[in-house]
Write a structure and sequence with these properties.
Elements: E1 6-11, H1 15-26, E2 31-34, H2 41-46, H3 48-67, H4 81-105, E3 109-111, E4 115-119, E5 122-125, E6 130-138, E7 142-144, E8 170-174, H5 178-189, E9 193-197, H6 209-221, E10 225-227, E11 232-237, E12 243-247, E13 253-255, E14 257-260, E15 264-266, E16 299-301, H7 312-327, E17 341-343, E18 349-353, H8 356-363, E19 366-373, E20 387-394, E21 400-406, H9 410-422, H10 427-431
Parallel strand pairs: 1-2, 1-6, 2-3, 6-16, 8-9, 8-14, 9-10
Antiparallel strand pairs: 4-5, 5-6, 7-15, 11-12, 12-13, 17-18, 18-21, 19-20, 20-21
Helix pairs in contact: 1-7, 3-4, 3-5
């Protein structure tokens, strides 16, 4: 009898787990992956993919309004939340099926049960079955964090928001990170009254301050209300189903739904890692080395559960690197610096590299170039919103340390520009590039 039933047992079939599974199998490993819900993980099932589809859907409210100034007329236009919701959920089903086929085509065994670690080489399934594996990979991702306060059971999270029976006329959102502000933009555009409540006075912590300020100004002008320095005290449900939201130092707010978007925590509760001698970090994360190996030589972890960079493409790269390192005889590290990111707020913002504050702290002598402009698309719209691009450069070399943008299509523009930043190009390289006119992207090579 073989010592191990599998060469690799993966716990969690999200983006990182699926990539690691199929690549390890392609390298010749016998692989099984356990998943207690659906294949695809947070991004595909209850995260960035369905959320981006809601963003697209919500944009039509603005586009239809602007269309009149471009000569179009629409009569009887209306919005049906149920139709959008159901289309989004059907696409989630489609993607779930594609992920399942990917595993099947690579001969990865799917086990649709919860799995917990019981030792360096052993896993126990919810059915009671014990499994032995040479290597174990933990890729269980993160889970929404809900603060404890009276009535918190009346709240929903980003897990449930895609399944709402009807559009809430009054929505309170707890938190001011990227999840909170993306949903604030979606529901505001769909006609809901949105109130964002935050414990501090900072939105989008970690992003460039000038872009944060610009987004705050624009979203307030669009009707999103903010309440800062306002911890939740309690939530009470009325007989008619409405919610009374009590905040510290404020009059109660009446809401139809309260969406908690106060961050995500590694989904390690009850996973049994202590049986393999693995101690979790302060936030419940799994500490790993540069090859994603834990303190136990046979157990690795990738993705959000490690709390390194909580982004889907990063988890995918970590899964690939793990499989190539352990089963492909190709030791591979993932560079977590200079990772581009975006917030699909309305308008969206995107950035790569150091913010102005980070660059000043790290380099001291820097120079900031910027372009503050009105996007051409907005000229015919009844909006005075302006885009803002910033280029952060080291002096005197001119090397670009960071690029940050807010405005229509900023994430689409940034992806290509991020290559230049990662390659270490200089402001002179940007200046030497001929502008593509008329476009918003041309501002990248025209900044002063």
């Amino acid at each position: 009898m073989p010592e191990y039933e599998y060469d690799l047992f993966v716990i969690g079939a999200g983006s990182g787990g699926v990539r690691a599974s199929r690549v390890a199998a392609a390298h010749g490993a016998k692989v099984a992956v356990a998943e207690e819900y659906r294949v695809g993980g947070t991004c595909v099932i209850r995260g960035c993919v369905p959320k981006k589809l809601l963003v697209y859907g919500s944009h039509f409210a603005e586009d239809l309004e602007d269309a009149e100034n471009y000569g179009w007329s629409f009569e009887g236009a209306s919005f049906d939340w149920g139709r959008l919701r159901d289309h989004v959920l059907r696409d989630v089903d489609r993607l779930n099926g594609l992920y399942e086929k990917t595993l099947e085509s690579h001969k990865v065994e799917r086990i649709m049960e919860r799995a917990t670690v019981t030792g360096p080489h052993s896993v126990k399934l919810a059915s009671g079955r014990e499994v032995a594996a040479k290597y174990i990979l933990v890729a269980v991702g993160g889970w929404p964090f809900v603060p404890e306060f009276e009535g918190s059971e009346h709240c929903i999270t980003s897990n449930e928001v895609f399944h709402l029976d009807k559009l809430p006329k009054r929505l309170v959102i707890a938190g001011a990170g990227y999840i909170a502000l993306e949903f604030a933009g979606i529901f505001n555009a769909l006609g809901c009254h949105v109130t964002v409540v935050n414990r501090s006075n900072v939105i989008l912590r970690g992003y460039d301050e000038a872009l944060r300020d610009r987004l705050l100004q624009i979203t307030m002008s669009r009707g999103i209300e903010y309440k800062f320095h306002c911890p939740f005290q309690k939530i009470e449900r009325r007989e008619d189903g409405a919610l009374d939201v009590h905040l510290e130092g404020q009059d109660p707010i009446v809401a139809d739904q309260v969406l908690v978007a106060t961050g995500r925590k590694p989904n390690t509760a009850g996973l049994g890692l202590e049986t393999a001698g693995i101690a979790l970090g302060e936030k419940g994360e799994i500490p790993v080395d540069e090859y994603s190996k834990t303190s136990c030589d046979s157990i690795y972890a990738v993705g959000d559960v490690t709390d390194r960079v909580q982004l889907t493409p990063v988890a995918i790269r970590e899964g690939q690197a793990f499989a190539d390192t352990v089963f492909g005889d190709k030791p591979t590290k993932v560079d977590h610096s200079c990772v581009p990111s975006a917030v699909f707020s309305q308008p969206p913002l995107a950035g790569v590299g150091l913010t102005e504050g980070e660059a000043r702290n790290s380099y001291g002598n820097i120079r900031v170039y910027s372009s503050d402009f009105r996007p051409m698309k907005n000229v015919f719209a009844n909006r005075a919103e302006r885009g803002l691009y910033k280029l952060i450069c080291e002096e005197p070399s001119g090397r670009v340390l960071g690029l940050h943008m807010i405005g229509p299509e900023a994430p689409e523009i940034l992806q290509a520009a991020a290559i230049a930043v990662r390659a270490g190009l200089t402001k002179a390289d940007f200046d030497a590039t001929v502008a593509l006119h008329p476009s918003m992207a041309e501002e990248l090579v025209l900044m002063k």
